[in-house]
């Protein structure tokens, strides 16, 4: 039995790995050691831990490591503390391999704590391209990792170009598509979002169609986070379409974004927007698949929505050069441009689904690769 | 004036940057902020701080961050603590750019603390190839860095292949060659090593020729460090040529190497070996240029010795695929093979100098690039 | 010039030391090194740093050290991180003495970082008695400290009984009384609280008299914090007197208290309560001196209000055996008891001012003691 | 079953608790959770962990927390790191009570991590008096602790005077006396120290009587540690009696002491001294009971030797006002005074055993008190 230790540090990462966790747990040759860390433990960022426990996963260790401040200095210190804490955790759990997910700033803590202790490191979802500190972190994770499970052909090629061993790079697709597949097969919106999740703001009438907005601060430009979110708020307010708006997750600058939202709510009191903090992943996907359009800069727009065929207005540079389907229309932080883009998406007839990020069996593919690949912690660049 | 913050974390790194420090200090457009951290502050690892202060550099901050243990877990925790401490330091110094040097395990702490705080990161001596955790750390540093000052054409090509922007990659050579140049121009051994540096072991007669040995543990194989060093000790003992042996610097496993040396000294009491803990860089180069051969796995053999034309026996995988001159003969950890290799080098007539790693003005080139390049903390992979 | 380093870690501590800071700054034999740390730097806890800078103090160092979580584990880890960070700060500032204030959980970090580095430690406001972790922390600070500046005769006796050297224990009163004195001399409420500070909740009519409530969670009972605050909310709601309510400062359990407040606001929507996050200390005192009664468990009720002659209803165990004036009526967490106690205080004719905690020149007394006392870091228990 | 978590942070602490560990393990109402931390894990300080495992104890957690540097700053930072790490450990183990032992600098980390998490804290061996940072740490531990198990009547009175609850203070004696009792009953020196433990220095002829020296640096005077140890070395050298000398344990300044010893060895090459790094506790006691005299400043001289009736020369202030038997003669750091004192002790006929620190069943008494006492984490000073 190979012991596979997976570290989940944030709410969105959980959706990116959930079906793989299930598949690892079920696999006869694998044993799952699940570590929940960072903002995934905190109420302020949506209590991902509650969803995870409700889904029946056993938690091997919890790691409190987030420093208050929500600025670049506290991001760095959170990461440093994460290295120290996760070094202890891996020393104790003695896993045969550690999995680090994607490119959030604190994921490099997992990578360092594992690789420095000579534990084979597996990086999920490397090789993509965005435009800020995530970009640096993702590729640094690639260079620390021994095995790469990427989510698209485009990403695979990029990891290979960076000098990784072709025998250790697999396109498994993204487990988030597995969840999307279930929803696609049975897309009915079977709950009342406001009744089930509360939230704040107006009780909007969403039954005749609605928008969903999810906009995160872009770390390296965090002073402008407040200004950026105000553009989107103004556009949504002017459009006057019923809208569900999700608060951003933890990041330097979430203060800027959150402040912008709070300021707009108190001064403008928009009648067409209802705000949520969090939602169970399945419910969120169901909400998306029934929406007119997703607006913002979330990677969900690039990934799950491409598979689901949901129209997306992607604003700004956060998703940068990530491969995208025809469902996505890119625009900039300008009220009128955002309005125009949303109108375009809503009226478009030709939006189709794509399998760029997998066809819905990614979790099992990941478990199989983990079970069958000979893991090692030695590597050398190929050129 | 651009404020350039350079972080030196270990004795050997100082030689790799010294002439650049001087050039930055003198440059009219640059201001030096020198941070000394990690083992460079500790007596057990040769008190690099003393040499640095003696050379007249002003220290902006000292960072104590080394955890006891000398095992992979303490390496990871030292790195995590380094991130936390250096985050504070950069927050306070507010540099315009931070320089991280080469590939020691703790150098990634500098990289994270700078890049996460949106400070342009400059990586010195990326793009080389070796064979253990250094390999992973070096390339991860490259992916976190915005500007790359590499030491050879070979390294430059590799950094470009990894997707870095050609406008931000410069082959400046290695500042250690600048020091070597001074020595080459005036190579006389003008001091008595044992009188000046004490050390332990036999007082050998070095006046008719001697070997120098410097062997570091290879981190990912640290349990075998003790066994490896014993092979070299046996070979040197059997050859019975007067030898100066340098203790290894801090690393997981230095215990293994140090234990091996101590054990051999106490049981075999070799009459032909004298042991040093440390030496001023210039004196060390002077010792090398007058030696018959350098034995071990130090990168000095690959770099400075190639410029100086000193014969080198390089043992094991530590230097791996680093570009090397014709002065180097590679061998394995086997007593007889080491003896054969040393005999080959000592008797070779054809060893010539090379400028693979620069021609002696690297420090000034580095300062000029820093002054003239437009520094930024945004980057995106080129493909 | 003696360098006196004062560490302020929270908003309420600042009021307890402000006039002493001014007096140290002005004293010809003293130099102030002001360190702002912990929640005093964070927006979520009232941005004390902004008031401090506005008051014209120069900040020598800022120390980010608060871990997210607001539970006992994060309190402990915040303290540990504080020790590490403050050790660096004192190493760099090289003060002749360090001042730690009162008994918040993180103040022991200051005490350890100073005393372990052989820097004389001065403890302000030891010797009092309360009823939770503060109680342990306060007396542990006393045992780590070399000089004790206490705020009442009662406290002085207690510190002496604990075995401290009588030559090193001074009753200087509390600097918060100095601020109260200024207000007492000129008590007019010269601003409109809601216009100046915003806040949330109903715009109450406060012109004909109002209550002030300030209730903090009691750390060792943090699961009951929510329930406790609901009792007070119910009592205030039923009384239906216009009320200004202040959110609690950072502590494990503030989530409980804050949740209770938020829940009550949303479900009951009390028409007579307006909520503030923070207020400038002088404005806060002015608000108090013009109020009918202060309700809750804040030490302001015991101290400043005793000097100001403001009626106080003190609920629960938080202030425990702290010496109190006749202005204070103690009660328990029971709606009816709280109502009765408030009615008693409001109707009482006989509330007079007392000087238990000083007569208004505490700041200068503190500076004088610091200047004249021979500071040392050696001590031995007196019995 | 009450879960009792005991934290051992150093070699000497283990002897102070060993029989209590055994008794806790055997007690039907108690479950032992043994945490080994700090220098007890490190080879440089005698690998206490090896002895503990050899004695058959199961280790619940290992905590690496020692920062390199051996100066006051690294002592403080080690303690801060200890708080962070032990907070995790207690969060995970969820003990019903935590035991902190005596007064080493890092023991306060255990106290904070437990008390801040509302876990009842038990302090072993409070109430004694010494003369440096240990003095402050010990009494601060007392003020953080809920239950006090002291080692002498004198100590008990002092803890009570400090305001602790008489129902929570027990004189259990010191478990180290339990070990001494076994040896006293069978005192034959049944091993050859040099054969069994190696060590360095001359092979002395100890069969006709020998001295034992154990001298630790006194933290607050660490610059004079080197000078102090040289006085003792000179005295022992001049006396020319065969001597076993033990290296100091980890402390700021051990560098000073260790340097002094190394310097003396290399320059003077004393023919009558053999040096050991460590010895199993039982062997050490056997060595003591057969010696002419113990010299230095170890608390073993005050405790075990008083029970064993071994003559002791106690030098300097380290043991200060600790209660002592008639076996101890105090002196100062002066070569001639030390010589005189040793000669006095060696020739004294009247040295008798005493039971100040217990009569040999301390371990069981401790376990019984732990089992029978109602543990709580609430306390208030008694006056």
Automatic annotation (TrEMBL), chains A, B, C, D:
<dbReference type="InterPro" id="IPR020004">
    <property type="entry name" value="UDP-GlcNAc_Epase"/>
</dbReference>
<feature type="domain" description="UDP-N-acetylglucosamine 2-epimerase">
    <location>
        <begin position="23"/>
        <end position="370"/>
    </location>
</feature>
<dbReference type="InterPro" id="IPR029767">
    <property type="entry name" value="WecB-like"/>
</dbReference>
<protein>
    <submittedName>
        <fullName>UDP-N-acetyl glucosamine 2-epimerase</fullName>
    </submittedName>
</protein>
<dbReference type="Pfam" id="PF02350">
    <property type="entry name" value="Epimerase_2"/>
</dbReference>
<dbReference type="GO" id="GO:0004553">
    <property type="term" value="F:hydrolase activity, hydrolyzing O-glycosyl compounds"/>
</dbReference>
<dbReference type="GO" id="GO:0006047">
    <property type="term" value="P:UDP-N-acetylglucosamine metabolic process"/>
</dbReference>
<dbReference type="InterPro" id="IPR003331">
    <property type="entry name" value="UDP_GlcNAc_Epimerase_2_dom"/>
</dbReference>
């Amino acid at each position: 039995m190979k012991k596979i230790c997976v570290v989940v540090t944030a709410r969105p990462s959980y959706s990116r790995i959930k079906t793989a966790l299930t598949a690892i747990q079920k696999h006869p040759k694998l044993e799952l050691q699940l570590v929940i860390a960072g903002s995934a433990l905190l109420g302020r960022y949506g209590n991902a831990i509650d969803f995870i426990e409700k889904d029946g996963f056993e938690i091997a260790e919890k790691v409190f490591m987030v420093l208050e401040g929500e600025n670049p200095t506290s991001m760095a210190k959170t990461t440093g503390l994460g290295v120290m804490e996760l070094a202890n955790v891996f020393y104790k759990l003695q896993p045969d391999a550690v999995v680090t997910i994607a490119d959030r700033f604190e994921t490099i803590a997992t990578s360092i704590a594992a690789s420095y202790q000579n534990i084979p490191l597996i990086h999920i979802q490397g090789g993509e391209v965005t435009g800020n500190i995530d970009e640096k972190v993702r590729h640094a994770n690639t260079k620390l990792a021994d095995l790469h499970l990427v989510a698209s052909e485009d990403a695979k090629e990029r990891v290979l170009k960076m000098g990784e061993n072709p025998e250790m790079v697999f396109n498994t697709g993204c487990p988030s598509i597995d969840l999307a597949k279930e929803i696609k097969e049975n897309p009915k919106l079977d709950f009342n979002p406001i009744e089930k999740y509360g939230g704040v703001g107006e009780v909007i009438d969403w039954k005749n169609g609605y928008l969903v907005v999810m906009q995160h601060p872009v770390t390296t430009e965090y002073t402008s986070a407040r200004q950026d979110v105000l553009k989107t708020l103004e556009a949504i307010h002017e459009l006057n379409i019923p809208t569900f708006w999700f608060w951003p997750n933890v990041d330097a600058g979430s203060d800027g974004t959150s402040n912008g939202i709070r300021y707009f709510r108190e001064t403008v009191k928009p009648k067409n927007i209802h705000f949520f903090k969090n939602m169970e992943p399945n419910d969120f996907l169901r909400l998306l698949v029934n929406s007119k359009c997703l607006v913002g800069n979330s990677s969900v727009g690039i990934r799950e929505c491409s598979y689901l065929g949901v129209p997306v207005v992607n604003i700004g540079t956060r998703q940068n050069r990530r491969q995208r389907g025809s469902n996505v229309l890119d625009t900039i932080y300008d009220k009128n441009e955002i309005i125009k883009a949303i109108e375009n998406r809503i009226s478009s007839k030709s939006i189709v689904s794509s399998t760029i990020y997998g066809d819905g069996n990614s979790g099992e593919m990941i478990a199989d690769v983990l079970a069958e690949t000979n893991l090692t912690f030695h590597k050398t660049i190929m050129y």
